[in-house]
Amino acid sequence: MADLILEATGVVKNYGAVAALRGASLAVRGGEVHALMGANGAGKSTLVKILTGAVRPDQGTILVRGQQRTVHSPAAARRTGLMSVYQEPALIPDLSVRDNLILTQTPIDRFRSWVDELGVPDVDLNAPVRQLPLAVVRVLDLARALAIEPDVLLLDEMTAALPADLTERALDVVGRQRQDGRSVIFISHRMLEIAHLCDRATVLRDGETVGVVDVAPGAEDQIVSLMLGPLGVDPSSRAGASAARVAATIARESTPRLSVRKLDAGHKLHDVSFDMHASEVLGLFALEGQGQDELFGALSGAESPDGGSIEYEGKPVRFRHPADAIRRGIVYVPGDRALALLAQRSVRENVALPFSAKVRGWGFIDMPDEGRRVKGAIERLQIDTRAQSQVRRLSGGNQQKVVLARWIAGGLTTLLCFDPTRGIDIRTKAEIYQLVRDLAEAGAAVLLYTSEMEEIQRACDRVVVIFGGRVVDEMPASAADEATLLRAAHGLPPTGSVTNATAGEQSAAAAGT
Amino acid sequence: MTVATSAPSQPGRSAATRALVRGVGRDTWTLGLIGLLIALFVLTKMIQPTYGSSQVQNLATSILPLALAAVGQAIVVISGGIDLSLGSVMALTNVTAAALLVGQTPEMSVAVVIGVLLLGLVIGAINGSLVVLSRVPDIIVTLAMLFVWAGAALLVLGTPGGAAAPWMRPLTSGSFLTEWLPRALVVLLIFVGVVWLPLRRSRLGLSIYAVGSDRLAAFRSGVSVGQTKIAAYALTGLFAAAGGLALTAATGIGTPIPGPYTLLSVAAVVLGGVSLAGGRGGLLGPIIAVYVLSLVRTDLTFLGIDPNYSTVIQGVIMVGVVMVGAYLTLRRQRA
């Protein structure tokens, strides 16, 4: 086993009664890019914390080049040759880039050359990190890790918020690490990146390593089935087959649930009009910053529109406070769970908040009734309640379920979902799609914004595309393949075809010029 | 998806010029405070035409303890903490020095002064260690230690007493080179400079800012968060001890009852542009803020305003300055 650079075996970690890891293993060879895969809650982040020294394992051994190793901090992990790049950059916001490099004893010349390599020229080393765009900070964080020249580079969801052009260069640079005999542990939810970049993949499920896969064409299916396990919902099962039935319902219903007419809000949203019907999942697709944030703000009552009108079941409404929208059953599920949940409070309080502690209402809370309604919602959504005393201790997917449970327990007529599956594993994703579908079947109107194109066909009946603050296209979901969506989202006429949808917007933009 | 971080460098504007502009730009708060201070001096001169160099010297001498306290508080606040026991530590070091200095030879008195400074360092390290090891929030630990160190001060000297070394009073009063440069200010700047300047650019100094700015990012950058916090508290203790010695020098005795220094030091830190959330600010701002706060009080006295009103006015001025400062910062960021 001389070619193993890092080997973790039998790693166990319990948090109180909750077993985060039951027996995880990971073996990384010299000069390979190794994917670490697993649904949320599978123990991936715990294993990462153990490798980087943030958390100590209860059992198990970690060998580096055959030597037993114990680390208690990222600084110690670095001394043994492991550097990590996390989802949130580890640069100090109040220090300049240069001071950050001094703090971590990073060679500045090597850092500069990696920054150039990664495609962000002209970085001012004296600028405080706080003033730099987030995408740049992420690239600088990666460049710093590369400049330290670790034996093993651990990348945790590094590409999650990088624009397409920078992602491509970053993946390219990471791939070339293996030429120098260095290894990379790569964690990502994006199967395409895994397939493109990695040599092997270790799959975790429920705190255990369930398989090591050689990444070759077709390995994706194998990885997915390992991640899902025997009980998994088939992620490709789509509920859109009911489209015909929905169309019939819409035809029968004369007034739409929600009508948006010439809505104008903030600097970005101009003249948006569309209808939402009961029993329908309406998809909304747009590139970043096309006015979708403002649209959801106006519909949920968080922001006042500057012009236009919103009609609820044929009657004009004005929302001056989210409570006005919630009273009509128009509820909002934001992409960032932190915006919806009270992280330090229990699951029960979080679910019961809107209907028990009614906004602008006083009096005693009917505890038995609250308990029944919360329990019903938790069971319906299969929320994992082992850590229910504080919502922040739940996994991301379970947190999102709590947000949904809150509105289901309170009663809803219109569900506004803004990228509800962001950063959530595919198993929970499938459950959330199914739930959204069930709610629509039960008569709710659903507006689902997503940044992932394949979700439109998987979860929606109809889709509206917004570009530059205006509705540029509307089509049934069955017609919304990725190439069509991408063209529409760039404001291009629906002619010709974009063959390589995965290459991101450049190819589409190039096709348009 | 623009990723350009800075405009292409313009020809004719050297890197040094740009660095200077940026450095000044980042320290607008301190510059604003200096402007406010100058305006206050002009105002004082208008109200009281006889206000001159000897008054400036007296002012510097009388605020030396508070200025040292503010510097100490600023360091721990930058590191993301707060030290509510600072006033008690000043009292404890004040009486310890006064008790030990009775009838000492000059050589021994220097040794006592150094010993008291080390005592402050140790007390601060104890505060910091308790915060780090107990994981109880800083504000609670140091609130508890406020009582502990205040009690210890009473154990050292039950009633005001003791003495200062004869050389201490001249060291902190009068002027240096010119009558307009108070000796107390020179002593303050030298002491702060000797302790802080080598630290500021060192790994420890950067770590103090890093821990205050973002604990998790600092930990992930390889900073030892616990050791850094203990070091920051120890430095605060060192400056509190210096403040206690300044009290001994100014009064010639030790007084076991803590003065109002804890809250005044927090006020000076806030007014001095240090973020209570940690990570941002410097030590010059709080020192100037101490001058501003005292000059306002002097002016109100000259104007014959009831002292009870003048504390109200001081508070209103503080809120006003911080509000205006925050508003200007916000507008600059939006622009």
List keywords for this structure.
heterodimer, A: 513 residues, alpha/beta, Rossmann fold, six-stranded mixed beta sheet, disordered C terminus, B: 335 residues, mainly alpha, 14 helices
Give me the number of helical elements of chain A.
18
CATH topology of the largest domain in chain A: Rossmann fold
Low-confidence stretches of chain A: 231-242, 495-513
Which strand order spans the largest sheet of chain A, edge to edge or round the barrel?
6-7-8-3-9-10
What helical percentage do the residues of chain B reach?
A: over 70%
Question: Total number of helical segments of chain B?
Answer: 14
Q: How large is the radius of gyration of chain A?
A: 24 Å
Kindly estimate the percentage of residues of chain A that lie in beta strands according to DSSP: 15-25%
Rg on CA atoms of chain B, Å? 21 Å
CATH C-level class of the largest domain in chain A: Alpha Beta
The main sheet of chain B comes to: 2 strands, antiparallel
Total number of distinct structural domains of chain A: 3
Coarse shape of chain B: globular
Distance between the termini of chain B: 20 Å
Can you give the mean pLDDT of chain B?
88
**Secondary structure: helix percent of chain A:** 25-40%
* Helix-strand category of chain A: alpha/beta
